[in-house]
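Escalation from tier 1.

The customer reports that the assembly of two entities below gives different structure tokens on two consecutive runs. Tier 1 could not reproduce it. I'm attaching the input and our single run for tier 2 to review.
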Amino acid sequence: MAIRNSLSGQLLRRSSAVSGARFISSWFRSIEPAPKDPILGVTEAFLADQSPNKVNVGVGAYRDDNGKPVVLECVREAERRIAGSQFMEYLPIGGSVKMVEESLKLAYGENSEFIKDKRIGAVQALSGTGACRIFAAFQHRFHPTSQIYIPVPTWANHHNIWRDAGVPMKTFRYYHPESRGLDFSGLMEDIKNAPDGSFFLLHACAHNPTGVDPSEEQWREISSLIKVKGHFPFFDMAYQGFASGDPERDAKAIRIFLEDGHLIGLAQSYAKNMGLYGQRVGCLSVLCEDEKQAVAVKSQLQLLARPMYSNPPVHGALIVSTVLGDPELKNLWLKEVKVMADRIIGMRATLRENLEKLGSPLPWQHITNQIGMFCYSGLTPEQVDRMTNEFHIYMTRNGRISMAGLNTGNVGYVANAIHEITKSA
Amino acid sequence: MASSSVLSVATQCVSRNASSLSINETHKGKAKLGGSTLRFSKSSGRISMTVAVNVSRFEAIPMAPPDPILGVSEAFRADTSDAKLNLGVGAYRTEELQPYVLNVVKKAENLMLERGDNKEYLPIEGLAAFNKATAELLLGADNPAIKEQRVATVQGLSGTGSLRLGAALIERYFPGAKVLISAPTWGNHKNIFNDARVPWSEYRYYDPRTVGLDFEGMIEDIKAAPEGTFVLLHGCAHNPTGIDPTPEQWEKIADVIQQKNHIPFFDVAYQGFASGSLDEDAASVRLFVACGMEVLVAQSYSKNLGLYAERIGAMNVISSSSESATRVKSQLKRLARPMYSNPPVHGAKIVANVVGTPALFDEWKAEMEMMAGRIKNVRQKLYDSISSKDKSGKDWSFILKQIGMFSYTGLNKNQSDNMTNKWHVYMTKDGRISLAGLSLAKCEYLADAIIDSFHNVS
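Tier 1 run:
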């Protein structure tokens, strides 16, 4: 069209007339540089390091014993089946119905009455982050004066998520530094002291960053107390299957709460347990009193998602529903998840053994007591800096070590470094 | 759980709610107990009672209305009529009215599968190869802004997600600033700015009398806005009207925006789809950048690469210095992290592969021309059908002047409802039809429907 062509012509005229363009002073003068993300920034620094000895025990992404990222065989097979065959038409705002169904079965139980009774309002979400963010926005919209109680410590991004959603945060005691375990009495006291009907964020399994989980008995007591106080329990479950190797076992805390009659909220992620990190696939669910309420809640979750991203990405969802929906692939997945979890459990034992063999004066049983991808080593920020600067070992400054980054090739080196730095502590 | 402890919990609930206890024993059911609900379930031969903790915290939550655009497809799917036609959502269809996966996309996906790429997290800002490719596609690879590193690009969740990042940036760093959006505009623009808490108002755009652009009204309203307003512009193929400014009008718009020290914010969702040429369709954005303005641009690959469900797009901020671009990019990342941490990888790799492989890129351009060409043909056929059937003398030439996937028919809500209820033609209530969902074969039928709705329904 002649009309359109002439716009390019005018463009040429314009740019040559304005060479060395006149700039108004920038609108963005007052925008400060943002600090590096404390977790993802570690990987950036690691990648930039040239040392042959460098070790990345920063971000929680699984590595095999050769330190390589892993794509699960069940995932590859699922991808082969779906490649090119699907039209990439928009998913509904709430995402893939099949994927959501499978996710609910995984979390709530294959034969859960709540699923049968259609009492769960659920949407596909952008992995765990996206699920938490939609819930936080939902909480803000319908309980605008509420706060969220988060454990100390918790995954750093939890703070960002609820803050950007406009929900103020309060904390409850969780980690006990002296024992490197759970501060159970502190936790129970803080639950009790919170005003009735508060919102509580709980890690369903494999607490991030500490690796410290309540025992089954402790979970029952927590559930009872939360029930008495009428609090709302919101679970972040990013490691189902990854903690013990058995997804059913890792969902135990949730099942306890469900048996107790809680109406829970739940964020699920497939980043770790299916290795779908970059696909951003997860699920947000809210258990309601009845089907009608579940439908209403889901509609409101969708209303929040539409102005954030319209509808969620399809690729990861297809992989998940293909894997979980096919008995053979699902069995393969269960095996592969167990292999990953077992390797990590093995690394925990090896790291602890090495430290004890080196004659470390400090206690290290917390390494094997803790569970999941992370170990809260007890290293101070200064010690962490030494780990990085002297030994090229990259981790977050809270002392969190991603066990997935350890392998038979580097565990000795890391144990040695820890020992060197802590032996005179 | 021993029944005694269950009852003791029940007692606590009763005392909190000061109501009398009455239980209806049923096999499976509920009984109200003050503000709580006793739930009964039969398990292993005995009735056990669990007290549901509170009345749900979300008891009072109302049902949200269906999305005005995406809800149309749902309604269409439920319609059993053979004559039904979906002209709702802007998703490209072939002449056979089937969804279309571009050949280059299939090729790119196969390449990716063969390579066995891993699925690690992308950085918060997304895939570097994608970010480079998308900025170059938008501005031209030899654009001085790119050479001078003045462009901050962050991969976003298609157009929506990219717009949302831009809106969040405005809310945080330009407190009190408003966004001016066209009347009408894509329905979701308002939701995005509302949820991001950025105030907005409208500038005149669509003139119902001419079914064209109210250019004077637009200029007036842009002039009247307080200095430093963000002006949301559709780069090409305006949604929902299909009415774009002429090149001369773009120049005037740029002048006014520059004079008033406003900040242009482009939504580019149809690059390539308007004229068939990727470069041509980017001319408006490139003009503003060449003027020396700082510009925000949201991009989407949903339509032009058919990657709808992969959610791939980008937020670009072209600023006056590379130092400023660096700072802005860091803050965009900080906004993205608590939304979704890092963006999905699959769509980004497809785009990077297609744009970055010369043979695939050329093939894409050809497919792009083909898709845009089909829509132009359908426009022509629709216009021809209506003009020959409609004896009223009404001027339907606006159909030919409009551009892109959509046509603003000028039908009002009642008339649009008639289209659906009587003719099983699904469209949005603002009178917008998606020509991407129309085949040559259905043009006559649609012409009949439009003529009937326009003349016989008020």
